[in-house]
Design brief:
By secondary structure, the chain is an all-alpha fold. It contains 16 helices and no strands.
Amino acid sequence: MRRLFVLSCGFYLLIGITSVILGPLLPTLLKHYGRDYSDGGTLLFLQFIGFLVGVLVSPMISARLGRKSMLLIALISITAACAVIGFLPMWIWVVCMTIIIGFGSGMIESSIGAFTIEFAEQGKAVAMTKLDVYFGVGALLIPIAASLYIRFDVWQFTFFSTSVITLVLMLLWITMPAESSKLLRIQSIESPEAPAHKKRYQRRHLSLLTIFVFFFFIYMGLELGLMNFLPSILIETASVNESVASLSVTMLWVAMVIGRLFVGKIAESIRYIPFLLWSTIGTLFFTIAMLLISNVIATYLLIFAIGICMCGLFSITLVYANSLIPGMTERTTSILIAAGGIGGAVLQYGIGWGMARWPASSAIWILAGFSLVLLLAIGLSYQWNMRSKTSGNSLTI
């Protein structure tokens, strides 16, 4: 089980890389192909359409082939797609390979996430937080590599490096000891608890589930909007060069990784609702502050503050949602991850469309609007719980 969890951390590091790989390279990539930000938004939209498809088909593929074979397919897909893009083929091939990268990432995230939540009997939140740390490490390292590659005008090596990392992870996965492989097969397919969890949502939980679906839809738009468009925003608003601008994503993920090391204990000590409220308020405040400050150093400090505020929003809200809707962990988690995938796809397209037509500062207003919506969603969930408490149906939060 330990070997499986270590490899699971490696998988999350990989999807952290694939989730942000386009963002730091977007200005350079679009310039190379003579495209605008609308095309960039479309590219990101299609990546997350692929991600969503991967999330949706992973249970079917896992049931037919087993989780080990399914993840092997995902790794092969990402390895090949990144290698093809690295050769800078025609634009249509870049689009197709981007979809495949999203598809492989979707299969990995949904499968590993479900496995961890299902079989980490104690400390599910801690286990998920650890995976999120590795996701953050991946999202942190690739912009640094991209910045160096851009500086030496070999930016396409970012894709080759990702392909090599995926290949190494694939070799470790193939050579996983038979004992660990058998454990994975038994737990993922033959678990005697699986039939017991096929339940329906209670009517009173449907409105709450809708609130959380909307939260994750918007949250992924906010997170991925920052990751993928922050360099472009800084190039236009702060007049920094491309290599320096790509480090803004690094700054964001340094903050997220640091925060995720402590976020679980902090949220448990002050309880979920206060933690989520202050996190969303801080995100909103610091995002708006970016519109008022033009100094580059101050802007990077604001980006760091935004990363600290956002570091626990995904994992803690996921735990919070499952605490309010007990007995439906696997289904609720899948629905919320899918909602995030859809939000990431749709809202990336919207941000790219807006940046192609309006000043870059408009994108900051859009991101601030997303933060406000998250705050309202948390407030609505709190109101729902207070109403349930009056009727004696609430849980401690």
